[in-house]
Amino acid sequence: MIIKGERIGLNDKWARLIGIPVIVVLLVLLSDNPGIRFSSRILILSIVKYVVYVTIYWECSRFVFLYMRNRFPTLKQTGKRITVQSLVMFFFILLASLIIAGINNAYPNGNREPFFAEYEDIFRKSVVLLGIVTIIYECAYFFGRWEHSLYESERLKKESLISQLELLKNQISPHFLFNSLNALITLVPEDPKLSVLFIQRLSNVYRHVLNYNEKNLIDLETELKFLDDYIFLNKMRFGDNLRIVYQLPGDLESVKVIPFTLQMLVENAIKHNIVSGKKPLTISISKTGNFIVVKNNLQVKTSGVESMGTGLQNITNRYELLTNNRVEVIAGAAEFSVSLPLIYESQ
Questions:
Q1: Of 75, 146, 256, 313, which has fewest CB within 10 angstroms of its CB?
Q2: What are the extents of the domains in the chain?
Q3: Closest CA to 294 of 247, 339, 263
Q4: DSSP 8-class letter at 240
């Protein structure tokens, strides 16, 4: 089985290559036509007939299974999928048995039976045949989805742990705390009131870390409030040399983001670029289409900071788990931008 997004395919080549011949052999062995045992001609014709019939049954039922799985892909929809699938297969068996009985009745091979007796026998065998095929595919599908769910769950846990590690590196690091305390030491004798506000903002940052570091999604508004506190602390250090431009519409109440993603992007921009009076750093946060875009002008530091790319890769991986859209990263000659797919509350 192949699972890709919400599209589900079948990788059942060996099941078909082995399953169809096995069922044909069983049908030949269980056949009540005595001519099969005494006439090689009837035996060959019966084998050919069974191969054609079983292949048609298998391929038609396979098509129905595949269509239903793509129509009702989740485990929660299993009951509905099986119900609809069973009804479709029931009418298929009725029609197919009628056609096959008509063919057998028109071209008997040594054991002609009344039409309705032939129809009843074929119908019964068809139910058994499709029952076997259904059990094979349903078991493979169920365990495939179960295995996929376990894999995604483990992957999400792993990405969450990586995210927490990156959070510790980028926010609760001694570097960040050291810079904040240095700015506070300078500020206290000059402006005690502003110092109190600085301490409050610093407290807000760490309170947000404690409250949301284990969540997968939070409201965009909550993330922006946290980012505002974080930017305030950095502007106390860089002043007007750090410029933040918001270009967000007011209709984003239902938008969710992965916690700390905006902060990490702002942090990376500050960490890897020169921020000075001659070279101010401008970071813009805007909405473009179905993305929130964080963009900054490029004036990369030539020494002192080594970029491992783990923070950005972590953001990309976590978004891939939660949305069909990918994070877009564009590194131009003068600008660097990261586009985060919008995640709405209903997703």
A1: 146
A2: 2-154, 171-344
A3: 339
A4: G
Measured at the alpha carbon of residue 223, what is the angle toward residues 221 and 229, in degrees to the nearest 5? 105
Residue keyed to tokens 């009985």: 101
What is the reported pLDDT for 5? Answer: 38
Average pLDDT over residues 288-314: 79
For residue 98, give the nearest of 88, 110, 86, 106 by alpha carbon: 106
Q: How far apart are CA 165 and CA 310, in angstroms?
A: 10
* Number of CB atoms found within 10 A of residue 183's CB: 19
Give the pLDDT of residue 7.
Answer: 43
Residues facing 246 on adjacent strands: 285
User: In this structure, which CATH number among 3.20.20.140, 2.40.110.10, 3.30.565.10, 1.20.1250.20 belongs to the domain 171-344?
Assistant: 3.30.565.10
Distance, in Å, from the CA atom of 321 to the CA atom of 341, rounded to the nearest integer, reads: 12
What is the full DSSP assignment across 21-49?
Answer: HHHHHHHHHH---THHHH-HHHHHHHHHH
**Contacting residues for 35 by C-beta, under 8 A, at least 6 apart:** 42, 43, 109, 110, 111
Kindly state the tokens that stand for 196: 């109190």
Give CA–CA dist 57/162, Å, rounded.
Answer: 49
- Note the pLDDT of residue 47: 82
Residues 6+ apart with CB under 8 A from 231: 242, 244, 266
| Angstrom distances, CA of residue 98 to CA of 53, 118, 119 | 13, 9, 6
Lowest-pLDDT range of 128-137, 229-238, 304-313, 333-342:
304-313
From CA 217, how far away is CA 201, in angstroms rounded?
Answer: 22
Longest Cα–Cα distance in the chain? 110
Strand pairing category for 218-219 and 255-257:
antiparallel
pLDDT 10s digits, 203-242? 888 888 778 877 778 899 999 999 999 898 888 888 899 9
